[in-house]
Automatic annotation (TrEMBL):
Domain of life: Bacteria
Protein's recorded name: GNAT family N-acetyltransferase
Gene Ontology molecular function, alphabetical: aminoglycoside N-acetyltransferase activity
Pfam family, one: Acetyltransf_9
Entry-linked PROSITE patterns: GNAT
Annotated source species: Eiseniibacteriota bacterium
């Protein structure tokens, strides 16, 4: 049933209504939810698939930036991939993803990242595990660490400019953080039927941290703090942030937030009394492999060359032998080479993002290389744990 499939943008209001109907059934969107979602993403950032002229599925694309090795790369976040239930099982979803990746490659977009509803399907499209999103819950019962000297200011959550510089600094010290656009900041600053509170930590002219959260009622008179995002760039800001959270007790029962697998804030709590509520890994696709390797940042003081040989079933331009030369924190590509490190394109995603070491990936069968190559690759792709608090 693939012979009459077409991939395209939304053309008219009829297409919008058809996509709304399919999306609402697939993700249980109410009409108000769909309207908010559609307006945030924008008409130009939806794609649809037709069979014999009829809209049978679609997806949404977030044009955004993502940080790796301290540098921002253009990235296409993919969300709300769906095919109408009666049309599933005939290859439409695979066609939709392949068409999107070809479009992104033609536009020179190096990366695409998504949260997978089904990992096996997206692995077939070349996506692989790339970073963490761990949801924690911590009771607000610890003694305060002593009053922090840093002031904490309530601010308007809808004005994201004061938070942007802090988020950018955090992103440069991490792997996987988003360079949030207006849409993503709006998601951080809002919650359906809830008031979102935002605070800056430190002097208003030179803030060192921030927090966004809303409250949800729990048993009795209690409530929990659901943190949309928080950041602390200095030890003083970290202590002030923790004290601020604990100050909501005892009526405030717990704080819930998303962070990395190795969460620094939990190192300064009085006890290890937290729980992991949910563990997720987002997936990344190296769309334009050579450009992704060139634009990524690399550790200072590390120099060397890795000779790659890559296979990619969907994007032939990524295939073949090439050499990555690294020096001065930057990478450069030249074609050819010995092909010392062999992998499918998806197999080097966890290497690229620093989620796993080369030795771990070889043990998993994701790549093949000799000992000297693995040692150099470990140095070149070393870095902080990839994670992000955002979902889309």
């Amino acid at each position: 049933m693939n012979e009459r499939l077409e991939y395209m943008r939304l053309e008219d209001e009829k297409d919008v209504r058809a996509l709304q109907d399919i999306t609402s059934k697939a993700f249980h969107f109410t009409p108000p939810h769909w309207e908010i979602y559609f307006n945030r993403i924008g008409t130009a950032n939806f794609r649809i698939v037709r069979r014999q002229g009829r809209v049978i599925g679609g997806l949404a694309v977030y044009p955004i930036g993502q940080y790796f090795g301290g540098r921002r790369l253009p990235m296409a976040g993919v969300a709300a991939v769906q095919i109408s239930p009666e049309q599933r099982g005939y290859g439409a979803a695979g066609f939709l993803m392949k068409s999107l990746l070809e479009e992104l490659h033609d536009e020179g977009v190096p990366l695409s990242t998504l949260y997978a509803s089904t990992q096996a399907f997206y692995r077939k499209a070349g996506y692989e595990q790339a970073g963490n999103r761990i949801q924690y819950e911590c009771p607000l019962v610890y003694p305060k660490n002593g009053r922090s000297d840093l002031p904490i200011h309530p601010v308007d959550p809808s004005h994201h400019a004061p938070f942007q510089s802090i988020a950018t600094k955090r992103a440069g010290l991490s792997n996987g953080q988003l360079d949030r656009n207006e849409t993503m900041w709006e998601k951080i600053a809002t919650q359906k039927d809830q008031i979102v509170y935002a605070y800056l930590i430190g002097e208003e002219s030179h803030p060192e941290g921030y927090i966004f959260f809303h409250q949800e009622k729990s048993t009795g008179l209690g409530y929990s703090l659901h943190i949309h995002d928080m950041a602390a760039l200095t030890p003083a800001a970290g202590r002030a942030l923790l004290d601020f959270l604990m100050g909501h007790g005892p009526i405030g029962r717990s704080a819930v937030w998303a962070g990395p697998a190795i969460e620094p804030l939990l190192c300064i709590t009085a006890e290890q009394n937290f729980q992991v509520k949910r563990s997720m890994r987002w997936l990344t696709r190296l769309v334009d492999l050579r450009r992704a390797l060139t634009l990524r940042g690399y550790p200072d003081g590390v120099e060397g060359e890795i000779h790659f040989m890559i296979d990619d079933d969907l994007l032939p331009a990524n295939c073949g032998r090439f050499v990555l030369s690294v020096g001065g924190g930057k990478g450069a590509i030249r074609e050819g080479g010995r092909g010392d490190l062999r992998a499918r394109c998806g197999g080097i995603v966890p290497l690229y993002t620093s989620l796993f070491t080369p030795d771990q990936l070889q043990a998993l069968g994701f790549l093949q290389a000799g000992g000297g190559v693995l040692e150099l690759a470990t140095k070149i792709f070393s870095g902080p744990e990839p994670w992000m608090p955002d979902m889309y």
